[in-house]
Automatic annotation (TrEMBL):
Keyword Transcription regulation: yes
SUPFAM superfamilies membership: Homeodomain-like
Protein name as it appears in the record: AraC family transcriptional regulator
Domain HTH araC/xylS-type: 189-287
Species classification: Bacteria, Bacillati, Actinomycetota, Actinomycetes, Kitasatosporales
Organism per entry: Actinacidiphila acididurans
Length: 305
């Protein structure tokens, strides 16, 4: 990592370590901040269109079949809502684990992209993890720095946000950033919305392609490019995450949760659940409910943490 980039990310980490609990300024900037003092188990999270950054420590993120451990040397662009299984695997001795997720506003991306040459590099050539440029790291650090000057957020926040989008569009992640804009190509956002809102329905590729008015090969290719998952993998991850949430937070039984999210076979549900989370659903739900009762479950139960 270049020295200038490292210095910018150090500045950002120092601010986040002090301001992680100041929700109002962070929300005004479109930020979700996380400060964890010890490694965590993996849990289900929903990422909306965003830039995800680790400023201290390391994190494991599982998206479809893509399983990666990453830290502050990289970042992740999420162009559409994506179900992720993630957890903290390493904390910094001084700072613990620090992370920030910045909302990517499709209207802002469209506005900035309209004034720039279009990057048509194929998704298949793009690593899911982006690499910082000094200019991008500096802009992001200045955005984080506004947490110390909340009175300046209404004036400087929009300007720095535009610069961050511009700098992102100058990286190899530009096609993934542009995928957050659904104008002219609504196939993936529409498919994501259908699977999310109607996850309990017995979806098939043919039914989903018909709903979004495209061919099955086109849907498969575009969906995999944008999410690193096939539509059916995406649906399975949605269902398992929602089932776990229902068991832990709502207190439903494994059978109730499985039925609510669309599973018709208890053995099928149990097999998929154990494969993802490593334990049978009933035992895992009981364990996590007890942790929740004792206050031992952190932000991984919440979307986008």
């Amino acid at each position: 990592m270049e020295q200038a980039t490292a210095q910018s990310l150090d500045r950002a980490a120092e601010v986040v370590s002090r301001r992680a609990r100041d929700r109002a300024p962070a929300e005004a900037l479109g930020l979700r901040l996380s400060h964890v003092t010890a490694p965590t188990e993996v849990g289900y999270q929903r990422y909306t269109p965003s830039l995800s950054v680790v400023l201290a420590g390391r994190k494991r993120s599982i998206v479809g079949d893509d399983d990666q451990v990453w830290g502050r040397d990289r970042f992740i662009i999420t162009p559409v809502d994506i179900p992720v299984v993630a957890g903290v695997v390493e904390t910094d001795p001084q700072r613990g684990f620090l992370a920030a997720i910045w909302q990517l506003a499709p209207t802002l991306v469209a506005e900035v992209a309209a004034a720039m040459p279009r990057n048509d590099r194929p998704f298949s050539e793009i690593d899911r993890l982006g690499t910082w440029s000094p200019a991008l790291a500096d802009a992001f650090a200045r955005l984080i720095g506004l947490l110390d000057e909340p009175e300046h957020i209404p004036f400087l926040g929009p300007l720095i946000a535009r610069e961050i989008v511009l700098r992102l569009l100058q990286t190899d992640q530009a096609p993934r950033v542009l995928a957050a804009v659904d104008e002219g190509d609504p196939v993936v956002p529409r498919a994501v919305g259908l699977l999310t809102d109607r996850m309990a329905e017995p979806w098939s590729m043919s039914a989903l392609a018909a709903e979004v008015r495209t061919s099955q090969p086109t849907l498969f290719r575009r969906f995999k490019e944008a999410t690193s998952m096939t539509p059916m993998q995406y649906l399975k991850r949605l269902r398992l995450g929602e089932a776990r949430h229902r068991m832990v937070v709502l207190g439903e039984s494994a059978a109730q949760a499985a039925s609510a999210v669309g599973y018709r076979s208890a053995p099928h549900f149990s097999r998929d659940y154990r494969h993802l989370y490593g334990q049978p659903p009933a035992a895992d739900g009981a364990r996590l409910r007890e942790q929740l009762r004792r206050g031992g479950i952190d932000s991984w139960l919440s979307p986008g943490a």
